[in-house]
TrEMBL record:
Keywords: Hydrolase, Metal-binding, Zinc
Biased composition (Low complexity): 18-33
Pfam families: A_deaminase
Protein family: Belongs to the metallo-dependent hydrolases superfamily. Adenosine and AMP deaminases family.
Cofactor names: Zn(2+)
Residue stretches making up the Adenosine deaminase domain: 47-386
Name of this chain's protein: Adenosine deaminase
Gene Ontology molecular function: any one: deaminase activity
InterPro entries xref list: A_deaminase_dom, Ado/ade_deaminase, Metal_Hydrolase
Region (Disordered): 1-35
Gene3D superfamilies for this protein: Metal-dependent hydrolases
Length: 393
């Protein structure tokens, strides 16, 4: 039996939370040359967390067809090619990043418009709860035991002025799923990058005062290229969030450069960076990430599909890890991208020669990076170790 690879973890208190920092990068980065390929079935069997997935990106094609039919809304194109956004959501030309293929041919902004369309199909609390429950079931099928799911209410047009009702309906679906033994899910409430400072501070204050069920964090997403640098604008909202006990995870370094990652750290008290891959262009930032253990929540297929990198050979994931940065591997928007977490982990394992020890380390890193309650996180670390033993790691 080989040596058990377990990241060294140490607990510290940050903003009144006990958080566990993970200097896991050396263990994560260690590659076994010629490691035996780990299949998706084995990956599914490893208990794990997912920390970068948008609820808006989890509508399956069949969900869209059924919801559109229920609401009497015409499809924007042939059902079979609904996820071909280049066809149905043509971009305004100036606001796109370099085109990928399929879902990404319109770039990130066209993709966000597609999310608006599909979230607009959810109009009743029953539909929202059902979507939440089905998401939890799919997470469980991938062996995911805990998820921080990003919800950006600006996409959900039917709920303007009653976002609290949307959050309650989603929480009901997650509650029911948990009662049924499915994946435990908390919500990162996301601001859209183009929202105003006033809107952001009002939302942060409302979240802190009302503490909607299952909302654990404040987040920012959207297209950085279109909105420009927004961290200073959102700083007061994130001060309120931090002081009010909300965790923080920020999209940066996807459609912006490394400066977006610096901004998220300096102005928004980011505990995690969603994507963050453009950090690779700034040596000082890479060293800072390695030193602080702030994880980058990387999504390989999303980056390829949305044209952030043209191919895996040019993707910086392996180099970031080699230089000591903690990473998690996630799906981002699994349904339109056509992926599952086991596919993402398998893609990374095949590309970088990871075997079981690296995937076990990745599972530990996913839990450590997550905002799971301490007791659940401890339980999951134990479960990962038990699974590792059973797999002979
Ligand atoms: N919302 C959903 N997916 C996103 C992405 N990849 N980047 C920014 N915002 C998003
Ligand atoms: Zn994302």
């Amino acid at each position: 039996m080989g040596a058990r690879v377990r990241p060294i973890r140490s607990s510290e208190t940050r903003d009144g939370h006990t958080v566990t920092t993970t200097p896991t990068a050396p263990a994560q980065a260690h590659v076994t040359p010629g490691a035996k390929r780990v299949d998706e079935e084995t990956i599914r069997s490893i208990p794990k967390a997912e920390v970068h997935v948008h609820l808006e990106g989890t509508f399956e094609l069949i969900d869209l067809i059924e919801l559109a039919r229920e609401s009497g809304v015409p499809l924007p194109g042939p059902a079979a090619t609904l996820f071909d956004l280049g066809t149905h959501f043509a971009p305004d030309t100036t606001d796109t990043i370099d085109a990928g293929s399929g879902v990404g041919t319109g770039g990130l902004s066209a993709f966000l418009r597609f999310l608006d369309w599909q979230c607009g199909l959810i109009r009743t609390p029953q539909q929202a709860s059902a979507l939440a429950y089905r998401f939890a079931a799919r997470q469980s099928a991938s062996g995911i035991r805990y998820t921080d799911v990003i919800v950006n209410p600006t996409h959900w047009s039917a709920w303007r002025g009653r976002v609290g009702d949307l959050l309650s309906a989603l929480a009901e679906g997650f509650d029911e799923a948990e009662r049924d033994g499915l994946c435990v899910i908390n919500i990162a409430y996301s601001l859209l990058r183009t929202q105003s400072q006033d809107e952001a501070t009002t939302i942060a204050r409302w979240l802190v005062e009302t503490r909607p069920s299952r909302v654990i964090a404040l987040s920012v997403d959207g297209d950085e290229r279109v909105a420009g640098r927004t961290a200073e604008k959102f700083a007061p909202a994130f001060d309120i969030a931090r002081d009010g006990g909300l965790r923080r995870t920020i999209h940066a370094g996807e459609s912006s450069g490394a400066e977006g990652v610096w901004d998220a750290i300096r102005h928004l008290h980011a505990e995690r960076i969603d994507h963050g891959v453009r950090a690779i262009d700034d040596d000082e930032l890479v060293a800072h990430l390695a030193e602080t253990g702030i994880p980058l929540d990387v999504c390989l297929r999303s980056n390829l599909t949305l044209g952030v990198y043209p191919d895996l050979a040019s993707h910086p994931l392996a180099e970031l890890m080699r230089r000591g940065v903690t990473v998690t591997v996630n799906t981002d928007d699994p349904a339109p991208i056509g992926t599952r977490l086991e596919n993402e982990w398998s893609l990374a394992a095949d590309a970088y020669g990871w075997g079981l020890p690296q995937l076990i380390a990745l599972a530990h890193a996913s839990v450590t990076a997550s905002f799971a309650p301490d007791a659940l996180a401890a339980e999951l670390h134990e479960a990962i170790d038990a699974r590792a033993l059973a797999l002979g790691v």
